[in-house]
Write a structure and sequence with these properties.
Layout: H1 2-13, H2 19-67, H3 71-90, H4 99-118, E1 121-124, E2 136-142, E3 152-157, E4 159-162, E5 165-168, E6 170-175
Parallel strand pairs: 2-6
Antiparallel strand pairs: 1-4, 3-6, 4-5
């Protein structure tokens, strides 16, 4: 009997802790894991959004690079257009001596302007239009009773647009 009592005592000592203590530990671990999962999901969403924004910006940069790659080259060609136009202005239309040269200059100018147009480079010739500081550069102002104030009287140099964006402003005389 004494052995049975010792046996009972030793069995009581080896009894595992109460089940409530284990449940509490498991619940705390589950809550901690849920918090970690929520944080990881939030980080994954942020990373995906950042990646999408980066991809969109890269696509826009490539599109702009394609669209405006000709900007510097086109700006250099505009000096050639200006020279041909000035040459045509200075030659006498009636003179037989300059007739062949004038025709050649006109054809060259037309070919150059057609080439620029094919590459979405459009002239801005605002003669008689209201002054627009976004597309025109006022070189001087003049009094004029014939037109309203802020109207372009003369164009010294045409402006140009490349794909709708200003490549060079038109240099103009504006009425007061």
């Amino acid at each position: 009997m004494a052995d049975e009592q010792n046996l009972n005592v030793s069995q009581e000592d080896s009894v595992p802790p109460a089940p409530e203590a284990e449940v509490i530990d498991w619940q705390a671990q589950a809550e901690a894991l849920q918090e970690q999962l929520a944080a990881a999901q939030d980080q994954a969403l942020r990373t995906a959004a950042d990646l999408q924004n980066l991809r969109r910006r890269a696509e826009q940069d490539v599109e702009k690079a394609h669209k405006f790659a000709l900007e510097r080259f086109a700006g250099d060609l505009l000096a050639v257009v200006d020279s041909l136009e000035r040459g045509l202005e200075l030659t006498d239309i009636e003179s037989e001596a300059y007739k062949a040269m004038r025709e050649g200059m006109e054809l060259t100018l037309k070919l150059l302007l057609d080439t620029l147009k094919r590459h979405q480079i459009e002239p801005v010739d605002p003669h008689g239009a209201p002054f627009d500081p976004q597309q025109h550069q006022a070189m001087t102002t003049e009094e004029s009773a014939e037109v309203e104030p802020n109207t372009v009287l003369r164009v010294f140099q045409k402006g140009y647009l490349l794909n709708g964006r200003l490549l060079r402003p038109a240099m103009v005389v504006v009425s007061k």
